[in-house]
Amino acid sequence: MALTNGTKLGPYEIVSPLGAGGMGEVYRARDTRLGRDVAVKVLPASLASDRDLLRRFEQEARAVGTLDHPNILAIHDLGTHEETPYLVTELLEGQTLRDRMSGSTLPLRKAVDIAVQTANGVAAAHAKGTVHRDLKPENLFITADGRVKILDFGLAKLAEPPADAGETLARTQPGSVLGTVGYMSPEQVRGREADSRSDTGRRPFTGDSAVETMSAILKEDPPEISTIQKGVPPAVERVIRRCLEKSGEERFQSARDLAFALEAVSDSSSLAAFPVSPEAARVARRRNRLIPVAEAVLLLLAGAAAFWLVQGRSQRRAGPISYREVSFQPQMVFSAAFARDGRAIVYSAAREGNRPELYVIRPESPAPQPLGLRDTNLLSVSSKGDLAVLVHARYLFHRIFSGTLATMPLVGGAPREILEDVRQADWAADGASLAVIRGIGGRDRLEFPAGKLLYETSGWLSDLRISPGGDRIAFFEHPIRFDDRGSVAMVDLAGKKTTLSSGYSAERGIAWAPDGREVFFTAKDTAQPHIYGVSLAGERRVALEGAGWLTIHDIARNGEWLLTRDEIRADLLVLAPGERRERNVSWMDFSARPLLSADGRTLVFTEENGAIGLNYMSCVQKPPGSAVVQLGEGFAYDLSADGKWAAVIVPSTPQLFKLYPIGPGEPRTLERGNIESYATVQWFADQKRALVCGNEPGHATRCYVQEIAGGPPRKVTPEGTSDGLPSPDGRFVLIQNSAGEHMLYPLEGGEPRPVKSVAATDRLIRWSPDGHSLFVYGATEVPTRVERVDLASGRRELFRILSPRSWPAFWVSWEFRCPTTENPTPMPIAASCPRSSWWRARDECGGRLKGVQEARSDRPDTLALPSECPVNRPEALPDTRCV
Predict the structure, then answer these.
(1) Residue 85 sits in the same domain as residue 115
(2) Strands of 148-150's sheet, edge to edge?
């Protein structure tokens, strides 16, 4: 229906016609409400008369209207005029890609830039589950300032075929075809449902009819690019070839992957003076061959698993997933990998305590065989069969150890020590060099090879894995030291870091897909942990939903996954004076960081279960074991001497230091100054100050004194110091430096002095009331010894023994107050009881783990583990006294 100038469509006044086509007529119009010029597309009568098509069009328009991306035409409004639907979009000034390519010479570098913009726009649409299906030069618009705009999203899916149906075939049901024939993917020609990989936008095949063209798409190889244009850079040709693969599995698996590849191509200096002329285009068309390289690079957009994740998951069903249990004893498994042959498994574990030992499981012998090396943690297995291990391994947190990096052959031999104070390492593909993570001066460093810095942070890094191609390293980055929240990142060999996906807790285990296109990892972004896959362009999917906690450790070259089934929880246990058995007063399954008031009647703790949010929850029970009251999000680090205020760190962005009232009152947020990230907070006894440990941007952790009345924090220790604990008289601060040594820093001036009676492996609980002793516990041994250390003499006196009942456990934190006759004080303990068993997972249809639904009910009986974490006590308890 033609509109004349001045016609009103609601608030839009027609100014002049802009064009017409199979999808309707387009007009320039004036938005009288906002005083801006817009484009109004009036849709054809065939669409208006079909209620089903009209309904679907409106749904698509609304969906596309949510796509806020600079490379997608913005939809402003949707309406009807005299029962004819119209669409209001932004008004563009420029020309279509088809018009641009028929004009002057187009430099290849410019072509690649346009292709990158197009790929980014397509990727944004795929991420929201929208597939264009008719991507071609006529639907790509280049604005006057060089911006690419993708046109007709949503309309292409609803297009009806013209009467002759010579070039465009349209319907959206599986089993029929939709799109412009010359640009169809093989799956569209076959009538299969299109997914994001079908947004190819290419015209490499032509024929005298639509049938001949479709036959060529299915059967013929595309022409050699050199027959169209000589001297095409090899990097460009590789991208085009991959776009033209017959199988969707062999094309780029996401538009973001394609954009990533094109951006890498654009960095090549060989593109600078490589023009693509209109004459080459005309020659190519006369030969019925691939049109010029510029058009190929611009338009060969093979899409991705992003749409499969949103809508097309059923298109990628795999066969049943099979599991095979390969270990049968309860143990804490820290690290594991396939041996070079992909059949043997090497791992480090502790059947009790946190002292790792190396084991190997061989196909001919199902029972694990110890390699005879205690305090040795596995890091990686090389392509040559050598092991990278930590010897003299000292337990830190979670599954992390510190020790001396060493290498050794799997077939036998002693470790050869290489580098001290390393936490994790991984072999490069050549089996000759190692990437390492270690801390220096209070900052975490990722080095490859060892000694060459690639990335550094004031938080902490873990789980590094080098890609199969050796050009990238994936790792977890955690903003708060030894908190397992964080992101998945990668760094290239030039030190360029890219965050692939973020917003997780409980991160553990990273493995590369054998083809290097995807990184798999275990983490939580909800209450339940999953194994996720993320492409190099940041497209994430749930790769495996396990019945419980499945941690990925390695992926073999044949596609088998190495998993552990873990039971990880932290229970809060209370032992009251006169009782011989603890009471479990946990709220959920990870109640930790217990804090007791002086009278023992108030218990503050942190619930770290993901169900309450990524920022955790500070809670209180008055008295211990009573109903839980939620104070607010964050870690509760300390309780004031009068029991009225909890000092809490909220791991938000930015992080906050807050005080929560235990009773009536309002929370307070203290000044951050220049602190970027907090590590710990402790009250001084006078309750007028707090000792804060954290770091400023670009600096290592140090300790600060903060006045509760107000003002920014004040530096009191040098960089590389942490875990500060104020003395009872407020004159000293006990810290641990980056070398693991404990030092006393005077706050009133003077030199610090070492505290040699406290070992690097000791975990500090608190000072004795007179300030002469410290209560510590060991994080390595189970049963765990809690000891009182006299600072003057160095004498250590056993205070308490803690022991789990029947399977591995390690202690997360411990807290007590000295009981008196007037104030009989309970004694809460937080413990984590992990249990791990090995699983090999395999997709029986081709060796890649794709389907996930079948895993839920495959062997549910073998996945069940006890949910209790009982802790008992020896019959003879040491005398409990405080000085």
Answers:
(1) no
(2) 94-96, 140-143, 148-150
- Asked if 576 and 593 touch (Cβ cutoff 8 Å), the reply is no
Residue 663 and residue 649: Cα distance in Å, rounded?
A: 19
Pick from 271, 295, 316: which residue ends a domain? 316
Are 676 and 736 within one domain? Answer: yes
Question: In the prediction, which pLDDT does 780 show?
Answer: 65
Range of the domain at 67: 1-91
Tell which residue, 832, 413, 821, 829, has the closest CA to residue 578.
821
Regarding whether 598 and 667 lie in a shared domain, the answer is yes
One domain, residues 447 and 487: yes
Name the domain count of the chain: 4
| CA–CA separation, 626 and 485 (whole Å) | 29
Quote the distance between the C-alpha of residue 570 and its chain's center.
24
Cα–Cα distance measured from residue 415 to residue 404, given in angstroms and rounded to the nearest whole number: 10
Residues 6+ apart with CB under 8 A from 283: 228
The answer to whether residue 876 is domain-embedded is no
Give the SS3 label for residue 670: coil
Residues 118 and 213 in one domain: yes
Domain end call among 288, 316, 344: 316
More confident residue, 41 or 253: 41
Q: Is the pLDDT of residue 628 over 80?
A: yes
Is residue 127 within a helix (H) or strand (E), and if so which, with residue range? helix 108-127
- Give the residue ranges of DSSP H helices in 276-317: 278-286, 293-299, 305-307
pTM, rounded to two decimals: 0.57
Does residue 117 form part of some domain?
yes
pLDDT mean over 622-646: 94
Task: Provide the edge-to-edge strand list for the sheet that holds 443-447.
Answer: 424-427, 434-440, 443-447, 453-457
2: domain CATH number is 3.30.200.20
Residues 525 and 579 in one domain: no
User: Are 191 and 125 a contacting pair, CB within 8 Å?
Assistant: no
Q: Which of 91, 85, 75 is nearest to 10 (CA)?
A: 85
CATH of the domain at 331: 2.120.10.30
745-755 tens-digit pLDDT: 999 888 999 99
Mind telling me the catalytic residues?
Answer: 134
The span from the CA of 426 to the CA of 429, in Å, is: 9
- What is the chain's alpha carbon radius of gyration, rounded to the nearest angstrom? 32
Task: Dig out the tokens for 561 from the structure.
Answer: 């996954």
How confident is the model over 477-490, as a mean pLDDT? 89
Nearest to 605 by CA among 617, 597, 594: 594
Pairing of strands 179-180, 424-427: unpaired
